Amino acid sequence: MLGDGVNKPTGFLTADTVEEGDWAWEKLGYVATGTDGGFGASEPADALIDLVYALKAGYRQNATWLMNRRTQGAVRKLKDAEGNYLWQPAASPEGRASLMGFPLVEAEDMPDIAADSFSAAFGDFRRGYLIVDRQGVNILRDPYSAKPYVLFYTTKRVGGGIADFDAIKLLKFGE
Protein backbone atom coordinates (compact mmCIF):
# COMPACT_ATOMS: atom_id res chain seq x y z
CA MET A 1 0.00 0.00 0.00
CA LEU A 2 2.79 2.42 0.89
CA GLY A 3 5.75 1.00 -1.06
CA ASP A 4 7.78 3.49 -3.10
CA GLY A 5 9.16 0.99 -5.62
CA VAL A 6 12.71 1.06 -4.23
CA ASN A 7 13.54 -2.53 -3.23
CA LYS A 8 9.82 -3.14 -2.78
CA PRO A 9 6.64 -3.01 -4.88
CA THR A 10 4.99 0.33 -5.55
CA GLY A 11 1.98 0.79 -3.31
CA PHE A 12 -1.32 2.19 -4.53
CA LEU A 13 -1.37 4.88 -1.81
CA THR A 14 1.75 6.46 -3.33
CA ALA A 15 -0.04 7.13 -6.63
CA ASP A 16 -1.18 10.60 -7.64
CA THR A 17 -4.74 11.28 -6.50
CA VAL A 18 -7.49 13.52 -7.79
CA GLU A 19 -11.06 14.21 -6.71
CA GLU A 20 -13.44 11.76 -8.36
CA GLY A 21 -15.19 14.49 -10.35
CA ASP A 22 -11.88 15.40 -12.02
CA TRP A 23 -10.68 11.81 -12.47
CA ALA A 24 -7.99 11.17 -15.11
CA TRP A 25 -5.99 8.09 -16.11
CA GLU A 26 -2.85 7.44 -14.04
CA LYS A 27 -4.49 9.05 -11.03
CA LEU A 28 -6.56 7.39 -8.32
CA GLY A 29 -9.92 9.00 -7.72
CA TYR A 30 -11.10 9.81 -4.22
CA VAL A 31 -14.28 10.84 -2.46
CA ALA A 32 -13.88 13.29 0.43
CA THR A 33 -15.78 12.98 3.70
CA GLY A 34 -15.96 16.77 3.99
CA THR A 35 -14.55 16.79 7.51
CA ASP A 36 -10.86 16.76 8.42
CA GLY A 37 -10.03 13.62 10.35
CA GLY A 38 -13.50 12.11 10.42
CA PHE A 39 -16.94 11.66 8.93
CA GLY A 40 -19.38 14.52 8.48
CA ALA A 41 -21.62 15.35 11.45
CA SER A 42 -24.82 15.01 9.43
CA GLU A 43 -25.27 11.91 7.31
CA PRO A 44 -21.78 10.47 7.99
CA ALA A 45 -22.35 7.36 5.86
CA ASP A 46 -22.99 9.36 2.69
CA ALA A 47 -19.27 9.45 1.87
CA LEU A 48 -19.15 5.63 1.95
CA ILE A 49 -22.17 5.39 -0.34
CA ASP A 50 -20.62 7.94 -2.71
CA LEU A 51 -17.42 5.89 -2.74
CA VAL A 52 -19.27 2.69 -3.64
CA TYR A 53 -20.99 4.37 -6.57
CA ALA A 54 -17.85 6.17 -7.72
CA LEU A 55 -16.67 2.73 -8.82
CA LYS A 56 -18.04 1.55 -12.18
CA ALA A 57 -20.46 -1.38 -12.09
CA GLY A 58 -18.02 -3.77 -13.77
CA TYR A 59 -15.57 -3.30 -10.91
CA ARG A 60 -18.16 -3.04 -8.15
CA GLN A 61 -19.31 -6.66 -8.43
CA ASN A 62 -15.91 -7.92 -7.13
CA ALA A 63 -15.08 -4.94 -4.91
CA THR A 64 -13.65 -5.12 -1.41
CA TRP A 65 -13.19 -2.57 1.36
CA LEU A 66 -9.65 -2.13 2.70
CA MET A 67 -8.88 -0.33 5.99
CA ASN A 68 -7.06 -0.81 9.27
CA ARG A 69 -8.69 -1.79 12.57
CA ARG A 70 -8.97 1.77 13.92
CA THR A 71 -10.78 2.92 10.80
CA GLN A 72 -12.98 -0.16 11.02
CA GLY A 73 -13.86 0.80 14.58
CA ALA A 74 -15.03 4.23 13.44
CA VAL A 75 -16.96 2.82 10.48
CA ARG A 76 -18.52 0.09 12.60
CA LYS A 77 -20.37 2.74 14.64
CA LEU A 78 -22.14 4.23 11.58
CA LYS A 79 -25.88 3.64 11.26
CA ASP A 80 -28.45 4.13 8.53
CA ALA A 81 -31.60 6.27 8.83
CA GLU A 82 -33.47 3.44 10.61
CA GLY A 83 -30.73 3.02 13.22
CA ASN A 84 -29.29 -0.18 11.73
CA TYR A 85 -25.54 -0.59 11.66
CA LEU A 86 -24.00 -0.53 8.18
CA TRP A 87 -21.37 -3.03 9.30
CA GLN A 88 -22.42 -6.66 9.30
CA PRO A 89 -20.28 -9.09 11.31
CA ALA A 90 -19.38 -12.47 9.87
CA ALA A 91 -22.23 -14.99 10.13
CA SER A 92 -19.83 -17.86 10.83
CA PRO A 93 -16.29 -18.23 12.17
CA GLU A 94 -14.98 -18.81 8.63
CA GLY A 95 -17.02 -15.95 7.21
CA ARG A 96 -15.98 -12.40 6.48
CA ALA A 97 -17.31 -9.15 7.78
CA SER A 98 -19.11 -6.97 5.27
CA LEU A 99 -19.83 -3.28 4.93
CA MET A 100 -22.86 -2.33 2.85
CA GLY A 101 -22.86 -5.83 1.35
CA PHE A 102 -19.20 -5.82 0.28
CA PRO A 103 -16.45 -7.84 2.00
CA LEU A 104 -14.01 -5.99 4.23
CA VAL A 105 -10.31 -6.78 4.60
CA GLU A 106 -8.23 -5.53 7.52
CA ALA A 107 -4.85 -4.16 6.46
CA GLU A 108 -2.72 -2.72 9.25
CA ASP A 109 -0.55 -0.83 6.74
CA MET A 110 -3.43 1.47 5.86
CA PRO A 111 -3.16 4.85 7.63
CA ASP A 112 -5.32 5.82 10.60
CA ILE A 113 -8.07 8.39 10.21
CA ALA A 114 -6.44 11.83 10.27
CA ALA A 115 -6.79 15.15 8.47
CA ASP A 116 -6.37 14.67 4.70
CA SER A 117 -5.56 10.95 5.03
CA PHE A 118 -6.61 8.19 2.65
CA SER A 119 -7.61 5.72 5.36
CA ALA A 120 -10.03 3.55 3.40
CA ALA A 121 -9.95 2.08 -0.08
CA PHE A 122 -12.66 0.39 -2.10
CA GLY A 123 -12.26 -1.45 -5.35
CA ASP A 124 -11.60 -4.57 -7.35
CA PHE A 125 -7.99 -5.11 -6.29
CA ARG A 126 -7.57 -8.20 -8.47
CA ARG A 127 -8.07 -6.08 -11.56
CA GLY A 128 -6.67 -2.86 -10.18
CA TYR A 129 -3.33 -3.98 -8.72
CA LEU A 130 -0.85 -6.30 -10.42
CA ILE A 131 1.68 -8.37 -8.48
CA VAL A 132 4.60 -9.61 -10.54
CA ASP A 133 6.43 -12.62 -9.14
CA ARG A 134 9.37 -13.90 -11.14
CA GLN A 135 9.51 -17.68 -10.98
CA GLY A 136 12.32 -19.27 -9.10
CA VAL A 137 14.80 -18.31 -6.45
CA ASN A 138 18.37 -17.42 -7.38
CA ILE A 139 21.05 -19.02 -5.22
CA LEU A 140 24.64 -17.79 -5.17
CA ARG A 141 27.32 -19.92 -3.50
CA ASP A 142 30.12 -18.02 -1.73
CA PRO A 143 32.97 -20.38 -0.72
CA TYR A 144 35.43 -17.55 0.08
CA SER A 145 33.90 -15.19 2.67
CA ALA A 146 33.61 -17.50 5.67
CA LYS A 147 36.32 -20.15 5.38
CA PRO A 148 36.00 -23.11 6.16
CA TYR A 149 32.22 -22.65 5.75
CA VAL A 150 30.28 -21.96 2.58
CA LEU A 151 27.70 -19.17 2.50
CA PHE A 152 24.63 -19.14 0.28
CA TYR A 153 22.79 -15.98 -0.79
CA THR A 154 19.26 -16.25 -2.09
CA THR A 155 17.25 -13.64 -3.97
CA LYS A 156 13.74 -13.55 -5.37
CA ARG A 157 12.37 -10.83 -7.62
CA VAL A 158 8.88 -9.49 -7.02
CA GLY A 159 7.15 -6.26 -7.90
CA GLY A 160 3.78 -4.65 -8.09
CA GLY A 161 1.87 -1.60 -9.15
CA ILE A 162 -1.47 -0.24 -10.22
CA ALA A 163 -2.70 -1.93 -13.38
CA ASP A 164 -6.09 -0.25 -13.71
CA PHE A 165 -6.58 3.18 -12.14
CA ASP A 166 -10.33 2.93 -12.63
CA ALA A 167 -10.67 -0.16 -10.40
CA ILE A 168 -9.61 1.40 -7.07
CA LYS A 169 -11.09 4.41 -5.28
CA LEU A 170 -10.00 6.05 -2.02
CA LEU A 171 -11.84 7.74 0.83
CA LYS A 172 -10.20 11.00 1.90
CA PHE A 173 -10.87 12.22 5.42
CA GLY A 174 -10.91 15.91 4.64
CA GLU A 175 -12.29 18.53 2.27
TrEMBL record:
Superkingdom, taxonomy of origin: Bacteria
Localization terms from the record: Virion
InterPro entries found in the cross-reference section: Phage_capsid, Phage_capsid-like_C
Name this polypeptide is given: Phage major capsid protein, HK97 family
A Pfam family this chain is assigned to: Phage_capsid
Lineage: Bacteria, Pseudomonadati, Pseudomonadota, Alphaproteobacteria, Hyphomicrobiales
SUPFAM superfamilies: Major capsid protein gp5
Ranges of residues in domain Phage capsid-like C-terminal: 3-173
Main location: virion
